Amino acid sequence: MINLLQFQILTEKSINSLESNKYTFKVDKRLNKTQIKEIFEQLFNIKVLNVNTCRSPKSFSRASKRYKSFYKKVILTVESGKLIQFV
Fold it and tell me: Which residues contact 71 (CB under 8 A, 6 or more apart)?
Protein backbone atom coordinates (compact mmCIF):
# COMPACT_ATOMS: atom_id res chain seq x y z
CA MET A 1 0.00 0.00 0.00
CA ILE A 2 2.91 2.35 0.68
CA ASN A 3 4.17 1.85 -2.89
CA LEU A 4 0.95 3.36 -4.24
CA LEU A 5 1.71 6.73 -2.60
CA GLN A 6 4.85 8.11 -4.19
CA PHE A 7 5.54 11.50 -2.58
CA GLN A 8 4.06 14.83 -1.56
CA ILE A 9 4.25 17.59 -4.16
CA LEU A 10 5.66 20.79 -2.68
CA THR A 11 5.24 23.77 -4.97
CA GLU A 12 4.36 27.35 -4.13
CA LYS A 13 0.71 26.74 -4.95
CA SER A 14 0.48 23.52 -2.93
CA ILE A 15 2.18 25.10 0.10
CA ASN A 16 -0.33 27.97 0.03
CA SER A 17 -3.20 25.49 -0.12
CA LEU A 18 -2.02 23.85 3.13
CA GLU A 19 -3.68 26.74 4.98
CA SER A 20 -7.06 25.56 3.68
CA ASN A 21 -6.33 21.92 4.68
CA LYS A 22 -5.50 20.72 1.16
CA TYR A 23 -2.59 18.33 0.58
CA THR A 24 -1.10 17.44 -2.82
CA PHE A 25 0.45 14.04 -3.55
CA LYS A 26 1.72 12.07 -6.51
CA VAL A 27 0.09 8.63 -6.53
CA ASP A 28 0.04 5.51 -8.67
CA LYS A 29 -1.86 6.12 -11.90
CA ARG A 30 -4.03 2.99 -11.47
CA LEU A 31 -5.79 4.21 -8.31
CA ASN A 32 -9.27 5.68 -8.36
CA LYS A 33 -10.75 8.25 -5.97
CA THR A 34 -12.37 5.79 -3.56
CA GLN A 35 -9.17 3.75 -3.24
CA ILE A 36 -7.13 6.91 -2.61
CA LYS A 37 -9.56 8.04 0.09
CA GLU A 38 -9.46 4.65 1.85
CA ILE A 39 -5.65 4.50 1.77
CA PHE A 40 -5.20 7.95 3.30
CA GLU A 41 -7.84 7.37 5.96
CA GLN A 42 -6.20 4.09 7.00
CA LEU A 43 -2.58 5.29 6.92
CA PHE A 44 -2.94 8.69 8.57
CA ASN A 45 -6.14 8.21 10.67
CA ILE A 46 -7.82 11.31 9.27
CA LYS A 47 -11.19 12.00 7.66
CA VAL A 48 -10.86 12.94 3.98
CA LEU A 49 -13.65 15.28 2.88
CA ASN A 50 -12.84 15.64 -0.81
CA VAL A 51 -10.54 14.00 -3.38
CA ASN A 52 -9.58 15.76 -6.62
CA THR A 53 -7.40 14.01 -9.18
CA CYS A 54 -5.70 15.05 -12.39
CA ARG A 55 -3.33 13.37 -14.82
CA SER A 56 -0.49 15.17 -16.49
CA PRO A 57 -0.23 14.56 -20.23
CA LYS A 58 2.68 12.80 -21.88
CA SER A 59 5.38 15.22 -22.91
CA PHE A 60 8.18 14.85 -25.43
CA SER A 61 11.72 15.38 -24.19
CA ARG A 62 14.01 16.82 -26.83
CA ALA A 63 17.13 15.91 -24.86
CA SER A 64 16.41 12.19 -24.62
CA LYS A 65 14.27 12.00 -27.81
CA ARG A 66 11.44 10.13 -26.12
CA TYR A 67 8.16 10.68 -24.33
CA LYS A 68 8.01 11.15 -20.57
CA SER A 69 5.21 9.14 -19.01
CA PHE A 70 2.27 10.83 -17.35
CA TYR A 71 1.62 10.81 -13.61
CA LYS A 72 -1.44 11.21 -11.42
CA LYS A 73 -1.72 14.05 -8.92
CA VAL A 74 -4.26 14.06 -6.11
CA ILE A 75 -5.43 17.00 -3.99
CA LEU A 76 -6.97 15.92 -0.67
CA THR A 77 -9.17 18.11 1.51
CA VAL A 78 -9.14 17.01 5.16
CA GLU A 79 -11.13 18.12 8.20
CA SER A 80 -10.19 21.49 9.65
CA GLY A 81 -7.81 21.18 12.57
CA LYS A 82 -6.46 17.79 11.40
CA LEU A 83 -2.92 17.42 10.07
CA ILE A 84 -1.20 14.68 8.11
CA GLN A 85 1.78 13.68 10.25
CA PHE A 86 4.82 12.40 8.36
CA VAL A 87 7.25 10.17 10.21
Answer: 6, 26, 29, 55, 56
Are 79 and 47 a contacting pair, CB within 8 Å? yes
Q: Does residue 26 lie in a domain region?
A: yes
Number of domains in the chain: 1
Identify whether 85 is part of a domain.
no
Q: What is the pLDDT of residues 61-72, one digit of tens each?
A: 788 888 877 889
Which amino acid appears at position 34 of this protein? Answer: T
In Å, how far are 15, 26, 41 from 4, measured between CA atoms? 22, 9, 14
Stated pTM of the model = 0.79
